[in-house]
Amino acid sequence: MIKVVKIGGNVIDSEEALSSFVSDFASIEGPKVLVHGGGKLATRLAERLDIPTTMIDGRRVTDSDTLDVVTMVYAGLVNKRIVAMLQSLGCNAIGLSGADGGAVRATRRAANPIDFGFVGDISVEGVDAAFIRNLIEQGIVPVFCSIMHDGKGQLLNCNADSVASAVAVGLATECDTELLFCFEKRGVMRDVDDDTSVIANINREGYKTLLAEGVVNKGMIPKIDGAFRALECGVKVVTIKHSAELADSSAGTKIEL
């Protein structure tokens, strides 16, 4: 089974947390793929360059200047830093955007009802699963940032959770796949300030209730939406968990249909 692991921006922001996570990821036996975000670093660089940051429902509005920033940060600094860390641990990783090897194509999102600018959405048809699997079979670990391309020369900023979900679904057309979303919380929390309030399992009916109650909001929405889509499209297991609990199969929140 191929593990597709997504690591969140808050972990990337912490040198200690990132180092610990990368060590745990490198120790995972078997085929694996890493997908990363890096939002806070991009926001800080944008501020230094006097480029305003606009977020809507946890997603970044990406004009041309912002696209330059996120490409530099996600596909450059963050991606190569993680790859270098993995290489130091004997994990033969390769850093990729969606444009590299034509691995993942996206389509620019329609301007209605909200114009997100140069933001892309990915379908399973846009994932070259054979290319990704070929890298894995050669003993190479793909490390994807969230910068994709449209196949016509345009780079697009995609939500990293959505990238991880799409890659997992694409690979699921060829082999068994597990998807893990790792971030700074122990899972989906009923109370974000209470580490013991992890919701162990969420199905669709429970999700509707959590949305209505406001328990699930902002950046957690695309994460869980992507989890359900992944399960519907053949991914075997989806878990949301703390980055420090990557190796613990019983930890976190399991998403179920």
Q: How much of the sequence is in beta strands?
A: 15-25%
Helix content: 25-40%
The fold-level CATH name is Carbamate kinase
What is the makeup of the main sheet? Answer: 8 strands, mixed
Q: Segments where pLDDT lies below 50 for 5+ residues?
A: none
Average pLDDT figure: 94
Structural class from helices and strands? alpha/beta
CATH superfamily: Acetylglutamate kinase-like
Question: How many domains make up the 3D coordinates?
Answer: 1
Give the overall shape, derived from the CA principal axes. globular
**C-alpha end-to-end distance:** 20 Å
Largest sheet: spatial strand order: 5-8-2-1-11-13-14-12
CATH structural class: Alpha Beta
> Would you list the SSEs in sequence order as H and E?
EHHEHEEHEEEHEEEHEEHHEE
Strand runs, count: 14
Task: Name a few traits of the molecule.
single chain, 257 residues, alpha/beta, Carbamate kinase, 8-stranded mixed sheet, two-stranded antiparallel ribbon
Describe this structure in words.
By secondary structure, the protein is α/β, with parallel strands linked by helices. It has one domain (2-255): Carbamate kinase. 38% of the residues lie in helices and 20% in strands. It has 8 helices and 14 strands. Strands 5-8-2-1-11-13-14-12 form an 8-stranded mixed beta sheet, sandwiched between helices. The protein has a two-stranded antiparallel sheet with strand order 3-4. Strands 6-7 form a two-stranded antiparallel sheet. Helix 3 packs across helix 4 and helix 6 packs parallel to helix 8. The protein is globular, with a radius of gyration of 17 Å. The mean pLDDT is 94.
